[in-house]
Amino acid sequence: MQSNTTTPRLIALLCALLTASVACAGEFVDLGVPVRHAQVMNAMVGPDAQGRNTKVYVNMMSAGQTFFLLQIDPDTGEVNRFDGAEGRGAWHSIVGPDDRIYFAVYGSGCPVSLWVFDPAKPEEGLHHLADWSLSEEIVWKIAADEDTIYGCTYGNALVLAYNIETGAIRCFGPFTETGQYSRPILVGREGWVYTAVGTAEWDMIALDPDTGEYHSVRSAEQKQGPMLPEGHPSWGKMYLGQEGNVYYWDNDGWHMLVGGRSIPIAAEDLGQWHKRPLEDGRVLGVCSDEGYYTLVNRATGETTRHEFDYEAPGSRLFMVGEGSDDAIYGSSIIPLQMFRHDPLTGENVQLGNPTQGGAEIYSILPIGDLMVLGSYPGAYLSVYDSRKPWRFGTDPGSNPRGYGRLGDGHFRPQAMTEGPEGRVYIGSIPDYGELGGAMGVFDVERWELVENHRDIVPDQSILALTYDPASGLIFGGTSIVGGGGSTPTADEAVVYAWDPSRKEIVWQTAPVPGSEGVTGLTLAGGKLFASVKGNRVCALDPATGEVLATGEVPRGWVHTAAIGTHSNGMVYGLTGSCIYSVDPATHEITEVATFSEGISCGFALTDDGIYFGSGTHLWMYRW
Question: Fewest Cβ atoms closer than 10 Å to its Cβ: which of 136, 152, 379, 403?
Fold first, then answer.
């Protein structure tokens, strides 16, 4: 008997086909906003309109869109929201000595600035208080004494000061010759300001803001080794104790910072972490962007969980790629949320965070029915099976299953390719302050990093990888730029050919003399094509590395991880404003289409078209 029931999947498919017919060949199609999420930058207990500590404040940010403040009443569950400006973000916030909430704000083309929220005047909302610096890009953290807000920066590793009473602004530093980052920043109860400075050389600085005098608190012996324990993120391990003293870890153990001096201290003598308590004495525990926080009674250890709702704006996309199921996948940036776009139905699904970090996915590699995901920070590796329900974890039954950090030389896993025996080759940019990335080899079945080659090209990171089954060679593209805060020592980026059996480079060449980085690699027509930072695309002989031709893309600069070979044999790539093609036979570079709204990331190349990100939106260029 024939059924007249139409399945939901078929209905969705018919709707998608009808929708697709509206978009003509050669047109750009807006596929919507696949991620709507915000990240908790920090949270704290703070005052209500009467100055009583009865509220929980949550500083949230959606990169590329806005930052906003949630004011939550733990007793009633009421949530009030106050928005900052579009296109700006706030990395940190504190309750100031005047019971107002202060925010360290940055934005493209705008000076770093202080914003403020006054619980006694909620009708004023979040508003700009003062521009803080024209030279710095970001204020990472802020702290306060009885009348001044202090901030630590990226750019020149400065300490900025804003006097609440007078509005006077002061700038301290730079403190070292190589420092670009100062982070975090704390004020001890005796008034000294402490900040960690890096990343090419690490130091711990004590600053007397009354006199401007500053000095390192590290001894000559301490400076011979790292300032952080192995596996710790690349910032100073330091915190403010409940009694007002500052504690930090160095390679010889814990220290207490008092009066600008470093005093060794046993771990069992460390002070309790400073937490501003509610009126009833409870302190804030965790606060999650999934919409919950906990309150802890420190005396009894009792913990209660509380939920809150918020409407998130669209999140800026960081990368787009193909999955193992013919769908399109990608990641937002701060917060890290993986998404899936179904080309048949047009549906966008926000999947979640497949890592233990919170920044962005750098690479997605389909391998069989699985997808290998490489994320920042820490080059965190996960494996996802789209056929199974989403339940991230690290145990064998999890999906995605987190493997963890790749280790030496890996921090931003920029490139992946499937090599011999189905193993995954991963190329990375190293940790902050370091030069010389790594190429790792991961065996999914053995669940093991079976090889790791650090500094394979001396002092250079690895931005691109591709595999040639015919020759059995892995081709890599490098960058002279290392981890944040490092200073390049190499003169030019190279393309290299790696023999996996001999585990050595068989040839390497600089495709463009003096170039800073090779942003992508692909094989087509028996040749190797490389996009080179700037506006160049080069054709190379994969057997020898000889450069056969070099051409310029028509407009803009080539994107990283945005060049590939289509099933029709042509090479396609992205710049910031156009799609271009390269004919493998003639090396002719042609502009395919111009996208006036700007291409911010890529890149999935399918038989239907090219998928890419533009701000918070996923777009497709339909052939």
Answer: 403
